[in-house]
Structures are given as structure tokens and as C-alpha cells.
Amino acid sequence: MSGPGKSSRRFVARPRGVESWVSDGDRERTTPPSRSANTARLTIDVTPELRRRIKFAALQRGLTLADLLRALLVEAFPDEDQERAP
């Protein structure tokens, strides 16, 4: 157990210049993004127990929770063009 004033969570310091912080996103990346630039965020509410089970399943497969859920969604909702291919 940590004592008073000690936290296991770390927060990123607030940027000094908001304008420069926002424009930093315009610079060319030296590393590729972890996901496609053409993505949309999806937020759902699940019970803590379901979240635990999903995280455990992802860990067992060596995936992140997000990658596991993306794969499941792609499998459940295939692209209509790919479905019609002979």
C-alpha cells in the first residue's frame, strides 16, 4: 500500500504552449502510427467482469484489448464486397 501523497499513477505535464502542442501533430512522424489514420473511435459500456474477461482473452492471445476487439468485429461484420467475391 502506498502512503499519503504517493500515487502509482503518473500524469503527463500540461503543455506550456497549447498552440505549439496542437501543431506538433502536424509534424511528420518518425514511427508509423499504431493504427490506421482512417479510424473512428467507438465507446461502449461493459461490466467490469466482462472487461476483465476480454482483457484476459487478449493477454492469452498476445494481443492488445483493442486489437482483439477489432478482429472480432471484422469477423462478425465482414466487408460486403469481400462477402460477394467468388
From TrEMBL:
It comes from the Bacteria. SUPFAM superfamilies: Ribbon-helix-helix (SSF47598). Residues 1-39 are annotated as: Disordered. GO terms for biological process: regulation of DNA-templated transcription. Gene3D superfamilies: Met repressor-like. This is Chromosome partitioning protein ParB.
